Amino acid sequence: DLHSFPTRRSSDLRTCAYLTGTAGADRLVGLDAARGAALIGMMAAHVGLTTCGLTSVPGLLNQAHGRAAVLFSVIAGFSLGIMSGRTAPHTGERLVRTRLRLLVRSALLLALGAVLSTFGTMVAIILGYYAAWLALAIPVLTWRARRLFVLAGLTAVIGPVLVQGVPWALDRAGLTISPAVPDGNDALLSFFFTGAYSGALWMAYIYLGLGLSRLDWSRSADLWRLAGAGALCAGLGCAGGWAASLAVSPQSPDSYHLISPADPAQCRLENAVSPQGPAAPPDAASSSWTVKSGEESGGAVADPGPPGLSQLATAAPHSETPFEALGSGGAAMTLIAVLQLVGRRARHALAPLAAMGSMSLTVYCGHIVVIWAAENPYNPTDNRFFAAMAGGFAVFAMAWLTIWARGPLEHLVHVISVRATRAPGAR
Predict the structure, then answer these.
(1) Which of 231, 234, 297, 339 sits at a 20 to 30 Å CA gap from 414?
(2) H or E segment and range at residue 223
(3) How far is the C-alpha of 287 from the C-alpha of 160, rounded, in Å?
């Protein structure tokens, strides 16, 4: 039980009922590995040297921009499904307890995000957004896969329009999205429309992951179908974004470099992402209604007019468009399914990734601390710092999990949420 846990022998820590489901044979090792891959992708985007093209290591690492955060969000939705019963959603009193646990976890994530923000790194902390998304997903915890997929699709289509249009509409009404007094009351607007991860769109990834968790992941044939469906969505998203960008801007459509240039400076500007990677979208991802257009006359700026479809005609990372959502969401589906297929036959091959993924909160917070402690981590000339960070956390996670079945922060969050909801031993 909870009170005797600290005094148990190390040989019992991974087998006691308190940890059932954490280290059990039914754990989805491919999902843990995908979560680990998302963590490594975030590290690459934050501190790695990345360039365009697919024929070099920096070019391959460049694919993490935007997609790592989306993958992390889809898996967060999948984790919600695991907490709420997977293919047999909780009902009755158990559902009430699950909802309470999610609210407690949301509060803890919000607190952790606030602590990490005090380090003053250039990384936009995602934990506060997760806290909001967990709470927002509570009403749909009992939904089946098909309804969740429909909801994810509608959110991916409507969300970008809201992200672009709501700030403009508020401005037209004489209101503001940036209050003069920074008293925190604009948090809801930030979580939904103006933040680095606008919930009006990013909730689509939570719904997608939750829907995936409701499916049967025990058969290889189903996993192959999921991988194929994800690959199709990824291709349609990229192709659709390219076609739309070509239609609205023939001179500068989305570009996809296959060959890495000898000089990284040759990469086109739209493919360059700020050093923060997934943490901070480029200008193209922000609400374009704020951009001044027209001629200034007498100190006045012409009304830029409502956002047009041109802002949605791209699949670029962090562009927050339906094309990006389709492409990046599909890529996430494919990676999770493929890694689960690999994990079924070669579980040990995924051990480093799975170890990191099984303690993702600890690794995420730890990598923020490492970035804060490093000297000038944002202008890399090579990938040694990134490799050392990723390798170091993989070794730490594997060493930790030889004794304990949860990471330190995961254990803390679990104990607090279980005790707060009076559900000892709950999974």
Answers:
(1) 339
(2) helix 220-248
(3) 10
Q: How many CB atoms lie within 10 A of CB 197?
A: 26
| Per-residue model confidence as pLDDT tens digits over 24-78 | 556 889 999 999 999 999 999 999 998 888 888 988 999 999 999 999 999 999 9
| CA 378, chain centre distance (Å) | 21
Give the span between the Cα atoms of 31 and 350, in whole angstroms: 10
Structure tokens at 220: 């290889």
Q: Which helix (H) or strand (E) holds 356?
A: helix 351-358
Q: How many CA atoms lie within 13 A of 421 on its CB side?
A: 23
Count of other CB atoms within 10 angstroms of residue 373: 10
Q: What are phi and psi of 119, to 5 degrees?
A: -75, -15
Which amino acid, residue 184? G
Tokens at 44, concatenated: 């690459």
- What are the average pLDDT values for consecutive 10-residue runs of the chain, which has 427 residues? 38 39 66 96 93 87 93 96 92 92 94 95 92 93 95 96 89 85 83 90 97 93 96 95 90 80 65 39 33 39 62 90 96 96 90 94 96 88 93 96 91 90 57
Q: At 402, list the tokens.
A: 């030889």
DSSP conformational letter for 151: H
CA distance 383 to 397: 21
- The widest CA-to-CA distance across the chain, in whole angstroms, is 77
